[in-house]
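Per reviewer request, we include the raw input and output of the structure prediction for the construct analysed in the revised manuscript.
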Amino acid sequence: MVADVVVETADTSTLVFFTGNDHLEYRAGHFLTIDPHQFEALERFTAFLEDLKGKREPPRAYSMCSAPHERYLAVTVKEEQYVSGTTKYPPLLSPLLVKRTVKGMRLMVTGFTGPYTLSPDIDSQTDHIVHICAGSGSVPNFSMLKHALEYYPRLRHTFIYSNKTWRDIIFRDALIELEAKHPERLRVIHTLTREPDVALCGPSVRKGRVNAEMLRALIPDLDSCVIYICGPGISKFDREAAKEKGEQPQPRFLESVLADLKSLGVPNARIKRESYG
């Protein structure tokens, strides 16, 4: 049952679930799935898309922003947009979850799974975790960050978070609170691509996209830290569209950051990644 709906940004909401007294076993970074067929309001849209695609609509995966030690289960959902000429199909489930979910609504969810998780022995691998996220890619990293701050006191964290504007930052206040609570262990850096004057947003805010120069300056121990990257990557639709034009798909956030890290000599074994959003 939905116990609360927290509006994070204009297009993103966190759904907090009441699960009774059950303790749910999952790892920080896991996702759960929600099947669109359970919603009567979506029946005609689901049927239309299935006719159009010639196959059954699959459940959608949403990362949990809650951490395993917390007494609630929560997912954060960003509303997908339909962009003519760019998006192949209109989004089905995310608009309903973000804009039309209310307290008391009952949902059937399944899970929990996913390879993008915090390793149980992470503190034997490094004393510094670097999170590099964009948009809703912050969701699984936020879960991992909270879990690590609670259970791995030896670990330091640098959270580099890219968005378009100050208003687009998911968990903005929560990250401020965590940094204030753990000033020796957490540093949060925001990088904004479309904010007119980042100076008004505070000293931890940078202008522009994540790039190699920025990463070199912010991460002095590139050879020993472990890096978790989550953000938009080249999609199946991107590859198909580029193939039709006889071109290579343009790199997105994930590919660009990976290329920057490679140019800086970061070993691939120290990089965990997830294409998202």
